[in-house]
Amino acid sequence: MTEPYTIEPQPDSKDLLVLNMGPQHPSTHGVLRLILKIDGETVRDVQPVIGYLHRGFEKIAEGGRYPHFIIECNRADYVASYTYEVAYVRAVEELTGLQAPPRARYIRVICLELDRIQSHLVWLGTFGLDLGALNAFWYGFRERELILSLQQELTGVRMHPNYFRFGGVKADFPDGWIEKTRRVCDEVERKLDEYEDFLAQSDTFLMRTRGVGVLPKEMAIDWGVTGPNARASGLDFDLRRDEPYFAYSDMKFTVPVRTAGDCYARFEVRLEEMRQSIQIIRQALERLPQGPLILDGWEKGYQFLIAPKGEHYTRVEGPRGEIGVYLIGDGTTFPYRVKLRSPCFQNLSVLPELMRNTLIADLVAINGSFDIVMGCVDR
Amino acid sequence: MNELLFSVGGALALIGIVAGGGGVLTYVFRKLFADFGQRLGPNRVGPYGILQFVADGIKLVAKEDIIPARVERWGFRLAPHLTFVPAVLAFSPLPFSEGLIITDVRVGLILIFALAAMAPLGEVVAGWASNNKYSMLGGLRAAAMDVSYEIPLLISAVSVILLAGSASTLEIVKKQNELWFFIPQILGLFVFVAAMIGKVGVLPFDLPDAESELVAGYVTEYSGMRFAFFFLTMFANVFFIAALTVTLYFGGWLGPFGLHLPPMLSFIWFFLKAGVLIFVVFWLWNSLPRVRIDQFLNINWKLLFPLSLLNLVITSIMVAWGVAR
Asked: Which residues of A are less than 8 Å from B203 in CB distance?
């Protein structure tokens, strides 16, 4: 594009209709704003405008001691709050050279996978809603509620836990939590088949998703797309398997990969990922080791963690892709710099390429299938 | 004087049927939508929330009447009436039972379709006058849909006229005394219901007000009572689909297997059948995703239109050889 970058919709020189979509729009999932240039129903150009949810997290991190940002960073991606928190805690641990005890590592894996399932369920619901399958939304949120109440029992809150500590986790499972989790796993697994019946066996759904928004593998790599979106394009890469952290090396699971790269492939990959997550949770509950939850002396001591001079980059496989935390310590109790690498930002940046020369309805489907969370994009 | 009274009474009854029926249908729809989504739905106002639609109506009437600053004021005010009035009038030649009909004209079916063909007018005016790009896109979509889906609709209705030998709705129902027309017209029924749903624009064909794409389409700028007119028109149209399908294909007020009710009560059969069809429409609404505009038009021109022509040919042959009649 040769036109200068501006967030004000400009009248178009080629007589296209300039349509401002968002930040208040039912299908932009929060505050994404798209400036479309449309020719009838065909979208000729898309310009995303972001920043409506910018809260300056990276600067906030520098203002507090290391543990203060635990509470903050899980607000970045409010749909997958556990994953962000774990990513930050892991980055600090690796910078300082801490190693959480085995039981804590297993608990973290369980939390991460529960988080992945509930995040994908939100995606499933909103994707259905974008396509007009109104009830998918209720179904997705119904099962998500089960998982949220599990998380609430474990951490005390439904969404922003402040549960992970440098060197461990805050609390052990409450009584009966493990059995309850097993039951929820069975329930969700059964419901996943129902979702597949409800959506994947509907011709209308296939018509709307097959061959729509095809992201080629090379393009996915070039634009830094990660997570389920990249795996749907044939990129066989999953940090849980390829760079295992916590207890993932003990778990047996497959990484679903599709090569089609269209909206339907992304749907399939996410459904399959939820099933695999359930398998991982079952295995982790099975093999849960006994032992301390947190390193000795860190129950309170984590408050005054002093990280050495140095820098470290950690990446974690989040529900939307690779969540990276780049951390510079300067030998004090304050982080010198925290940079969050957001998967949504990278995924969003490729969207205009896919949306060009599609119909408005396809644009909504593509946007929905990419699972963008604006809090994660803007940080 | 008597005639005048009768006309006024008929008109009032018509508005009552449409407004009341539409209102009740909003409640039924919300309850069913809740059931399909495993929720409770309205349950606070009255027993089982049945007075919810009354509360909604009061709210809509009491709301401030907002006309945005830069709309085309005349068209903006006119559009709700342009949509609502034909939708109400279209009920006038529909027989709820043998005696329960506002006006029996010899060309009743033609009148119905003439009135139904006025629907895109209000939608386009609303879309244009709102001075909103989403409204305009919605209005144009509505026009494209209505105009194209009318063709298979009319052709399958013509098959029924051929079969019945009359365009009067009363005659059509009376002809079904021995055999309901959905048996010889099974193909026509399929085309008719699909085209009717497409014309009225409920999911999976609710493209003019596709929420995730065009916010609310041509009703985006409307609020209060003006919005209520569009809303009511939509539910009146759902009722209309069911009522017309029952009249043309399922024997109107006639009972199945000769189980006719006395003339005073025979409307019960009519509403029972219409209720089943309305349930089917809501069922589709709740279980199918929305199709895309190009797919939608393709369904019409490549599937429904040829099928309706085929059905017309088959019906003509049947009538010519005297198989039916």
From this structure: 132, 134
pLDDT of residue B111: 87
Partner A, chain B 13-52, Cβ-Cβ below 8 Å = 33, 36-39
- Number of compact structural domains in chain B: 1
- Smallest Cβ–Cβ distance between B292 and the set A20, A142, A361 belongs to A361
Residue A314, H or E segment: strand A310-318
Give a yes or no: residue B55 inside a domain.
no
Average pLDDT over residues B149-156: 86
Domains belonging to chain A, first-starting first, are 57-378 (1.10.645.10)
- Residue B92 inside a domain? The answer is yes
Residue B285 included in any domain: yes
Contact B294 A359 (CB under 8 A): yes
C-beta separation of B312 from B159 below 8 A: yes
Residue range B115-150, pLDDT digits in tens:
888 878 888 888 888 888 888 888 888 888 888 888
Q: Give me the pLDDT at residue A208, please.
A: 84
d(CA A30, CA A20): 15
Model pTM score: 0.84
Among the listed residues B273, B84, B283, B81, the one whose alpha carbon sits nearest the alpha carbon of residue B197: B283
- CA dihedral of residues A361, A366, A369, A372 (deg, nearest 10): -110
Q: Is A300 exposed, middle or buried (0-12, 13-18, 19+ CB in 10 A)?
A: exposed
Residue type, A224: G
- Mean pLDDT in each 10-residue stretch from start to end of chain A (379 residues)? 57 75 78 84 84 86 85 84 88 86 89 90 88 83 89 86 85 87 90 84 84 86 88 88 85 87 89 90 88 79 78 88 88 86 87 85 86 84
CA dist A172 and B65 (Å) reads 57
- B290 in contact with chain A, both atoms CB, cutoff 8 A: yes
Print the domain residue range for B190: 70-320
**B23 inside domain:** no
**What is the ipTM, given to two decimal places?**
0.78
Closest partner residue to B288 (CB to CB) among A17, A26, A204 is A204
> What does the longest C-alpha to C-alpha distance in chain A come to?
69
Choose the mutation target among A127, A135, A205, A210 for the interface with B, i.e. most B CBs under 10 Å: A135
Chain A residue closest in CA terms to B202:
A132
* Nearest CB partner across the interface for B39, out of A138, A205, A362: A138
Of all residues in chain A, the one with the smallest CA distance to B39 is: A138
Distances (CA, A) of B193 to B183, B186, B187, B281, B289: 15, 11, 10, 9, 18
Of A344, A345, A359, nearest to A213 by C-alpha is A359
Q: How far is the C-alpha of B194 from the C-alpha of B150, rounded, in Å?
A: 11
